[in-house]
Amino acid sequence: MPGSLKSVPVPHYSVIIVGGGQAGLSASYYLQQEGIDHLMLEKHSLTHSWRTQRWDNFCLVTPNWQCALPGHPYEGSDPHGFMKREEIIAYLDAFIAKVKPPVREGVIVQRVTPRPQGGYAVQTSAGEYSADQVIVASGGYHTPIIPRMAERLPAHIQQLHSEQYRNAQSLPAGNVLVVGSGQSGAQIAEDLHLAGRKVYLAVGDAPRCARFHRGKDVVDWLAEMGYYDIGVDQHPLREGVRDNTNHYVTGRDGGRDIDLRKFATQGMELFGLLTGLDGSMLRFAPDLAAKLDAADAVYNRINTSIDRFIEENGIDAPPSAPYQPLWQPEAERESLDLAESGITSVIWCIGFSPDFGWLEAGVFNGRGQPLHVRGVTREPGLYFLGLPWLHTWGSGRFSGIACDAEHLVRHLARARKAA
Ligand SMILES: Cc1cc2nc3c(=O)[nH]c(=O)nc-3n(C[C@H](O)[C@H](O)[C@H](O)COP(=O)(O)OP(=O)(O)OC[C@H]3O[C@@H](n4cnc5c(N)ncnc54)[C@H](O)[C@@H]3O)c2cc1C
């Protein structure tokens, strides 16, 4: 009889963390310091993205010394090296063993809604929970972007997104079209090129930077110059900096530049922006020369700023010759016949769009991105952590997450005391 059914109380926590990547784990580290009970809900397994969404030859672009998770600095023998995928996973596993987060893995958070009485109702694939406060640490890379033109590619062409790429051997025999030259696209194009594959690369807007300049890693110089301490509130682009594309460069084999012009001299075929597909004809914008020049201009600008810093501070650093373009496109090529080119696979490396559709709160802008100040939203008790440029360059990386997580959890703890 319905009248005799007792309602089962919904498990309640002070804080629920959505997502078990480095951001969620860092939040748990500081919540434990504050003695605040919490539950972490992770739809796959902890640090899933590093285990499953990186290619086999993946290595960090940032030097190892920047791996500075809270209470877990890099302590290996190669601080200026670049960890490979398996080493990154080992570094994260050691962090998980230290933090021992209260986690439920394999649980998808499907809906989070503010409750009239305060706090949040959290609906999941494993039932309902509630919490006074919610930290959204579900990452910044949700839905892989694949353009609608992909639907018209011939069925025999294998298509994948950058997060699905593993190695050259797993692609069908033949040539490969890589679309996009951001950090992933440029490195995947290099990976295929080094594996002996013929690569066609549609070059996008991404800037590039040098790996080393004046005797040191550019990241080391920028750290000395204080660039990584600049918050969005002080950055010349303000919050617009969050839309910036990452610079392409690699940590592979001890670190080096990625110079697409050099690849062109070695047989890679470069095109401008991919704009469409007519039958079996791929269409490109006539902007390859401009894109290569723009990426080099950023490269030179960063180096010039380092030169200025060296000069102003009287630092004794070896000279470096300015970059000279190794190759120029003879003419802009605006089309490529898929059949004639022998392309059998296409890798989309054009990024991700955010998906916070499960979060029912009035904290988003017109593009679905959360509005916040250092992760604190205008909804009491609702926080974001781990987003690119949440506060600084390092916010969505290994270098800045500790600082952001500490700031956020201290804020959250103060809000609890004041409530
Ligand atoms: C190709 C690539 C290269 C990078 N290279 C570097 C580098 O060299 N150096 C560096 O410092 N950083 C690098 N980064 C950036 C950064 O370190 C990662 O993006 C990092 O994984 C961010 O951590 P996170 O915890 O915020 O998000 P994630 O690691 O994405 O974790 C979020 C977690 O939330 C879970 N989740 C999502 N939605 C839900 C839901 N509804 N319910 C439950 N769980 C959910 C996901 O399963 C995931 O495990 C790179 C990133 C990429 C993509």
Instruction: Sum up the overall morphology in one term.
Output: globular
**Count of discrete domains:** 2
- The tally of beta strands, per DSSP, is 21
| SS content category | alpha/beta
C-alpha Rg, in Å?
23 Å
Percentage beta strand: 15-25%
CATH secondary-structure class of the largest domain: Alpha Beta
| Head-to-tail CA distance between termini | 40 Å
Which superfamily, in CATH terms, is the homologous superfamily of the largest domain? FAD/NAD(P)-binding domain
What's the number of helices? 9
SSE pattern: EHEHEEHEEEEEEEHEEEHHEEEHEHEEEH
Q: List the bound ligands.
A: flavin-adenine dinucleotide
CATH architecture of the largest domain: 3-Layer(bba) Sandwich
Question: Which fold name corresponds to the CATH topology of the largest domain?
Answer: FAD/NAD(P)-binding domain
Largest sheet: 7 strands, mixed
Would you identify the regions where 5 or more consecutive residues have pLDDT less than 50?
A: none
Q: What percent of residues adopt helix (DSSP H or I)?
A: 25-40%
Average pLDDT works out at 96
